[in-house]
Specification:
- This protein is α+β, with helices and mostly antiparallel strands and about 450 residues long.
- It has one domain (about 25-85, about 105-450): Up-down Bundle (Outer membrane efflux proteins (OEP)), CATH 1.20.1600.
- It has eleven helices and six strands.
- It has helices at about 5-10, 10-35, 40-50, 55-70, 70-75, 125-195, 200-235, 260-270, 270-290, 340-405, 410-445; strands at about 40, 80-95, 100-125, 245, 295-310, 320-330.
- The strands form two sheets. It has a four-stranded antiparallel β-sheet with strand order 2-3-5-6, with no helix packed on it. A two-stranded parallel ribbon has the order 1-4.
- A hairpin with an 8-residue loop joins strand 5 and strand 6 (about 320-330).
- Helix 6 packs antiparallel against helix 9 (about 270-290) and helix 10 packs antiparallel against helix 11.
- The two termini are about 65 Å apart.
Length: about 450
């Protein structure tokens, strides 16, 4: 009976890799089951929205825009100032008289004052109204900017969630492949030991087993990167936390409505909404520039108190109370044609932003068309690859039976095994690609929030 010289050399490596092949997925599942919470896609998104640092920064920036949209910031309200002061002098005096020289030292005099003043622009040619409207539009822009950031974040979390599922599926496929290679190696070792197979067959089975083992080890690293990326988006302190996912497979939505998505894109896409806001802002800039051609009316009023102690030479403390007020009316007659220039530039800015809006609409139509084509194509591929996988599984089952009976070579069995792995990979890729297209279509149409449900 022949002995197996390769068995001793590879025993320790086989023990380790076979453990990965036979227990790799259960170990992963066990780690996930030990987690306290199961994370669905919706839960991942909600967790990220409440914890992610970028989202929190964007929300704070929106609060700044909200704080700025006030009548006072626009100039509607008057300004009131209160001021007061105390001044003093310490002098020496020398006076020449008929009787000689009269000197006085350290003569103190003091004066105190307090003033309450009011300034109010009552009318400035509708410039204040335009400014207030501009601040409210900027507040709306801040809300849209926050919405855009949230939509981008939801799309990123969704893509990374399904990336993790995709990598887990691939790990399962590679684990299954390694298990099949282990079975083939076992058969070859038994036949080699009784002399019915050559050492070449044994070495080839060992090489294939090692190649599958290497692919599995590399996939473990890829899976780790996918998991840490999702954990980073959710701002987990423990970036290596092995969270349990509610889904183990990717289920593409095959029932999206193209007409509805196209209509929603033109109406709800946040980029279009922001472009419309930019046009409104330019129109308000024009209105503000035109306001300089109107007269202005300003009110000034104040109330003051002054107390003066002129020093020992005076008999009484001098006090004064007074109210002052006034209206100022004015108009800029000539400013070097700057008003006309600003108005022409503002009108050009409106035209440019309208042109950008039309270009944006065309770009979104192009993106929608391309994404829809990719979505339909990947749906068809998905259906095709599901049937291919069934055929590949049956083909491998038949090949393995023939191999056990000695009617099929190891190379032919390996081809059947690779065909099965490739079919599984193509189906997984088609599912993943379809889901990414679905995410892109929902984001374009302003309906990405549907992913939370």
């Amino acid at each position: 009976m022949k002995t197996n010289p390769a068995k001793t050399n590879h025993r320790r490596m086989k023990t380790y890799l076979l453990g990965l092949a036979l227990t790799g997925i259960p170990l992963i599942a066990s780690a996930q089951n030990s987690a306290q919470q199961v994370y669905s896609l919706g839960r991942c998104i909600e967790t990220g929205l409440s914890r992610n640092y970028s989202i929190r920064i964007v929300r704070n920036e929106q609060l700044v825009a909200n704080n700025n949209a006030t009548p006072g910031a626009a100039g509607y309200l008057p300004t009131v100032d209160l001021s007061g002061g105390l001044n003093g002098n310490l002098n020496s005096a020398r006076n020449a008289t008929d009787n000689g020289t009269d000197s006085q030292n350290n003569i103190a005099s003091e004066a105190a004052n307090a003033n309450l003043s009011l300034a109010w622009t009552i009318f400035d040619g509708f410039g204040i109204q335009a400014e207030y409207s501009r601040l409210k539009e900027l507040r709306s822009m801040g809300e849209l900017s926050t919405r855009m950031s949230i939509e981008d974040f939801i799309a990123s979390v969704s893509a990374d969630y399904y990336t993790l599922i995709r990598q887990m599926t691939r790990l399962a496929n590679l684990t299954s492949t390694l298990s099949l290679s282990r079975e083939r190696l076992r058969i070859v070792e038994e036949r080699y030991s009784i002399g019915s197979m050559s050492r070449l067959d044994l070495q080839q089975a060992q090489v294939d087993f090692n190649a599958d083992s290497s692919a599995l080890l590399n996939q473990l690293e890829t899976l780790h990167r996918a998991r840490t990326q999702l954990n980073r988006l959710m701002a987990f302190d423990n970036i290596d936390e092995a969270i349990a996912l509610a889904d183990s497979v990717i289920r593409p939505n095959a029932f999206l409505d193209e007409a509805e998505l196209r209509k929603s894109t033109m109406e709800n896409n946040v980029s279009i909404l922001m472009a419309n806001k930019n046009i409104s802002l330019s129109q308000l800039e024009l209105k503000k520039a035109k306001s300089r051609s109107y007269p202005y009316l300003r009110l000034n009023a104040g109330y003051g108190y002054t107390a003066t102690n002129p020093g020992p030479a005076a008999n009484d403390l001098q006090q004064r109370f007074g109210l002052n007020y006034g209206l100022t009316v004015g108009i800029s007659i000539f400013d070097g044609f700057n008003r006309k220039r600003e108005q022409r530039n503002a009108a050009i800015a409106i035209q440019n932003r309208e042109l950008r809006l039309e270009d944006l609409r065309l770009s979104l139509k192009t993106d929608m068309s391309n994404q829809w084509m990719a979505y339909e194509n990947n749906l068809n591929l998905w259906e095709l690859e599901k049937s291919n996988r069934i055929a590949a599984q049956e083909n491998y089952r038949i090949a393995l039976e023939r191999y056990r009976l000695g009617d099929l070579s190891g190379i032919q069995l390996r081809e059947a095994q690779n065909s099965l792995l490739n079919a599984e990979e193509r189906q997984s890729i088609a599912e993943y690609a379809t889901k990414l297209c679905e995410i892109s279509l929902l984001q374009l149409s302003g309906r990405i929030i549907d992913m939370v449900e």
